[in-house]
Amino acid sequence: MDMDLKGNLKNGDLDAGGLDGMDLNDTNPIGASAGRYAAFRRLLSRFDHRPGPPQTAERPATAPVRAMLLGLLSSRRRAHTRRLWARWLEPVMLRDPVLLSVADPLPGCIRVIDTAGWWPALSRRMDDLPATVQTRLENRLTDGALDRVLASPEMVDWAEILRDRSLAVLDALRPDPGALALFLEEANTHRMRAASTLAIPGGVAALRPLDGTDMDTLAAALRLSDGWRTLGGRAPDMEIDELLACVRGAMVNGSVPPEAMALFAVAGLYTRRDPLLGAALRALLPLPLVDAAAAWLTAHTEETEGGVIEMSPFGGGPARGGDRGLGDLFEAARRSENVPSGVMGAAGGLGGR
Questions:
Q1: How far from 2 is each of 87, 143, 160, 227, CA to CA, in Å?
Q2: Which of 156, 196, 302, 322 matches a 20 to 30 Å C-alpha distance to 20?
Q3: What is the C-alpha separation between 306 and 34, in angstroms, rounded?
Q4: Residue 196 and residue 251 in one domain
Q5: pLDDT single digits (tens) 223-258
Q6: Domain assignment of residue 114, given as a range
Q7: What secondary structure does DSSP assign to 99-137, as a single string?
Q8: 286 in the same domain as 144
């Protein structure tokens, strides 16, 4: 795995994995618990940087305290392997609970609750690999805090193996309708169990089951996730002008494949839920996925006389569509001569590997 991806996996913003103790409204997957553990991290850092012999045997008085701190920092979530695997999806993963109650399939949408279904169903089909990774993780936790271990070169390599095995499992399921149906049933069972502990608008009954289209989106995201390593952040966390600049820059310099950029752009669009942003993204990145997401948003949007955009299927408060200069941004995107001509003619949606 190249060094760029290692750097990206070390970025705290790309930390992902479990639902344990995580607020779906929080853009940081560690959420509020990070603040509670900050003092422990600082204290552990002081132990790690104390002058003198580093061997534990030569510091018998401090060893138990350090071990206790490591245990506290590493026990926040036990699904460490899932957390390592889900880092691939973090740049496009959506945490807005309102999106869980949308009855229609959202093109290219991956929600954090979906990983609570995908990972158990996938891991059961990976033989001993998840257990091996979990054992290696737990062994390493005696030497450092969880976040530090997950960012280590060994775990970055294991993450690559988990991704490759996931894609192999998904590829094997496609030609077998019976196996595919069983896989989706297992994924939805685990996902529903996790959702029952969350505050979902409309309750768990409003949660649309995962289907084959969702599985294709997962496969595409895993396959294309290498392309996000140079973008330096999560699409849902970007402001509108930052997202548009990111898309434009990636298309101009060719640093990210168009299909990967489409998934990234759509994640930002679902977060902002602004039809004018959709129009600007379609002008910059005219691919089937972006067209479908923007068209869905436009079809489910009504603009009042006061310029307030109402999106009743999403619930929640209305979004302001005319107060961010998006009209000018759209015109600039439409008139842009920097978008490579190859992007304009790119075809194909989201498929498997």
A1: 16, 25, 11, 12
A2: 156
A3: 41
A4: no
A5: 999 999 889 899 999 999 999 999 999 989 998 999
A6: 1-29+69-210
A7: GGG--S--TT-EEHHHHHHHHHHHHTTSTTHHHHHHHHH
A8: no
Alpha carbon distance, N-terminus to C-terminus of the chain? 18
Last residue of a domain, one of 191, 210, 229: 210
| pTM, two decimal places | 0.73
Backbone angles phi, psi at 324, to 5 degrees: -125, 10
**DSSP character string of 32-52:** THHHHHHHHHHHHHHHHT-SS
Rounded CA gap, 227 and 229, in Å? 6
Contact 294, 281 (CB under 8 A): yes
CB of 76 closer than 8 Å to CB of 21: yes
Q: Nearest-5° angle of CA 3, CA 141, CA 120?
A: 80
In the chain, the number of structural domains is 2
Domain check: are 295 and 246 in the same one? Answer: yes
Distances in Å between the alpha carbon of 120 and those of 19, 157, 184?
13, 21, 11
